[in-house]
């Protein structure tokens, strides 16, 4: 989780940083992580293959990876501290 936290901190200005990274992170973990057992069980029950339920987390991870590649900007030379 270390690289994720470092990346999320660099995405937002200091004034709204904590709320901006906390809210989507915890909602995402709640919805996708919380529904993971139910969705994978339903997928396995509908197909009969024990490994068919693995496609849900693999698909979510792949979609998040593609979105990250497309929309997250480079922050190498950006000042992440607020100017007062």
Structure description:
With about 80 residues, the chain is mostly helical. It has two domains: about 1-35, no CATH class; about 35-75, no CATH class. The chain has helices spanning about 1-10, 15-35, 35-45, 55-70. The relative contact order is 0.12. The model has no long low-confidence stretch (mean pLDDT about 80).
Write a concise synopsis of the structure shown.
With 84 residues, the protein is mainly α. Helix content is 68%, strand content 0%. The protein is elongated, with a radius of gyration of 17 Å.
Number of helices: 4
Number of E strands = 0
The string of secondary-structure elements, in order, is HHHH
Poorly predicted spans? none
Distance between the termini: 30 Å
Q: How many domains, as an integer?
A: 2
Which shape, going by the Cα principal axes?
A: elongated
Work out the radius of gyration: 17 Å
The fraction of residues assigned to DSSP E strands is under 5%
Main sheet: strands, sense, barrel: none
Indicate the structural class.
Answer: mainly alpha
Helical amount among residues, as a percent range?
55-70%
- How confident overall, as mean pLDDT? 82
């Amino acid at each position: 989780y270390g690289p994720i936290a470092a990346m999320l901190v660099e995405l937002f200005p200091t004034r709204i940083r904590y709320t901006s990274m906390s809210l989507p992170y915890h909602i995402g973990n709640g919805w996708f992580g919380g529904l993971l057992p139910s969705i994978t069980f339903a997928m396995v029950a509908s197909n009969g293959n024990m490994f068919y339920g693995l496609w849900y987390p693999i698909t979510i991870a792949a979609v998040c990876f593609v979105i990250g590649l497309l929309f997250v900007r480079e922050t190498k030379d950006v000042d992440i501290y607020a100017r007062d």
